[in-house]
Design brief:
single chain, about 260 residues, alpha/beta, L-arginine/glycine Amidinotransferase, Chain A, three-stranded mixed beta sheet, 15 strands, about 30% strand, globular, binds citrulline
Length: about 260
């Protein structure tokens, strides 16, 4: 059974964190519509969607991926790297625990955002970024001690998965840019058989793979053309208002297999 955990867009969403001031302000109503279409797609693709109500105290709470890392029957409840997001993880931990997952909460000084974590088979690549520190990587590795955990320096953008994501078995889509190339080099070094799908648009690299379906950001036709080579069923979604807050597609859900 495949379960997706999502969290609503709070009315305070326009106060979410942003790497850059967007050209036009966030339209919260439109963000809610875009999120609604994302949730509707998930409802089609998974067995069950659990929606945690938005918490207006946390403008970024819809980016639920950052609050937990799940593999098998274990979940690490993170300490998000941005101070304004610390606290979002509590409700997520309660829900994951109620699904029967063994949860371990990170403790200070660790910080880690789930957007920095890419799991491929028994390898876990973790971006060492402005949000994820060495202690966070160590605590994650302690819980997932039967996985090979590798740190990947992230020197551009917000998270590791801002510039790459899984688009097939042992196939990672990467934005064609110097930081993407550096990250791919680290991955290739650890998993020589890994395949890479190089995308021309930096913002198109965060895709969500669910079985044979690949959700990608609409509005990047050149990258969509390349993604067709994965052989997956492509579903393009317009997430323009969430992109203004540096959100993509993986960040809006946690998918659990039970
Ligand atoms: C933040 O800066 O934390 C949010 N505005 C965006 C988080 C996006 N998370 C993700 O891609 N995993």
């Amino acid at each position: 059974m495949r379960i997706a955990l999502v969290r609503g867009i709070p009315d305070s969403f326009s106060e979410s964190l942003k790497l850059e001031v967007p050209k036009t302000p966030i339209h919260v109503g439109r963000a809610k519509e875009q999120h609604g279409r994302y949730v509707a797609e998930l409802m089609r693709l998974v067995d069950r969607v659990i929606e945690i109500p938005a918490d207006p105290r946390f403008p970024d709470c819809c980016f639920v991926e950052d609050t937990a890392v799940v593999a098998g029957d274990r979940a690490v409840i993170t300490r998000p790297g941005a101070p304004s997001r610390n606290g979002e993880q509590e409700q997520v931990g309660v829900v994951l625990g109620s699904l029967g997952l063994a949860t371990t909460a990170m403790t200070p000084p660790a910080t880690l955002d789930g957007g920095d974590v890419l799991r491929v088979g028994n390898h876990v690549f973790v971006g060492r970024s402005s949000r994820t520190n060495e202690a966070g990587i160590e605590q994650l590795a302690r819980v997932f001690c039967d996985y090979q955990v590798h740190a990947v320096p992230v020197d551009y953008g917000l998270h590791l998965k801002s510039m790459l994501s899984l688009v097939g078995e042992w196939n990672v889509a990467v934005a064609r840019c110097p930081a993407g190339e550096r990250a791919a080099h680290v991955i290739k070094d650890k998993v020589p058989d890994m395949r890479f799908t190089w995308l021309p648009d930096l913002h198109a690299a965060n895709c969500l793979l669910i079985g044979e379906n690949l959700i990608h950001l609409a509005g990047y036709p050149a990258s969509r053309g390349v993604l067709e080579g994965t052989g997956k069923t492509l579903l393009g979604l317009d997430m323009g208002e969430l992109e203004k807050a540096d959100g993509g597609l993986t960040c809006l859900s946690i998918v659990v297999e039970r």
